[in-house]
Task: structure prediction
Amino acid sequence: MKLFSKTNINYTDDVFFDTKSVEVGHHKLLYKNVPMIKCPFDYVMYQMIIFEVKPDLIIEIGTNRGGTALYLADLLTLSGCGVVHTMDIVDIRFDEMKQHERIRFFSGGFEGYDLKNTEGFERILIIEDGSHLYSDVKATLEKFKSVVSLDSYFIIEDGILDKLGWKDEYDGGPNKAIKEFIKKNPSYIIDRKWCDMFGTNATFNTNGFLKKLNRC
Result:
């Protein structure tokens, strides 16, 4: 009996991937079977950043299904401390995420989040993964810039939208907001260690790893 035929051998010597193929694949990424919609490069770097910074509070702007919050919370468990404050304007979370003891969900999006919730935390890291509209990214940067702790990060996700051809749909999106913010806020630098780990801006968070070096 033949084990293989010409129709079922899928071996190939071809190698091809690009920004678009990664974009298609990142929509399929799951954590504990919960969608997280994360570029695999960034998925890897987040665990490195968390163990470097050791935040006791991670603020995630944009929950979606909750896969990323669940991943971050588990990383905090491994690091020994910390909680996640995640927020969105709608609640479409999976049950696995709702039940995690280190996760607290806030409805109403970033505008409804009271900064008093950050009091008492010493090492705060922020991830902006909301609408990606220029106006919203700009607003979150202005609202939360003062609560990021020294030597921690304000990570702005999905500047890759430019390269995917969606810049106009987002009114310039994250990159436009980052350019303006960096010029006006010398307390922050773009940390190219993360942006360029796999190649120049080989991340969906192009220019988006903003490290805080001084108090605002």
Observations:
- The CA atoms of residues 20 and 129 lie 19 Å apart.
- The first strand starts at residue 30 and ends at 31.
- The helical segments are 19-26, 40-53, 67-79, 95-98, 134-144, 173-184, 192-195.
- The mean pLDDT is 93.
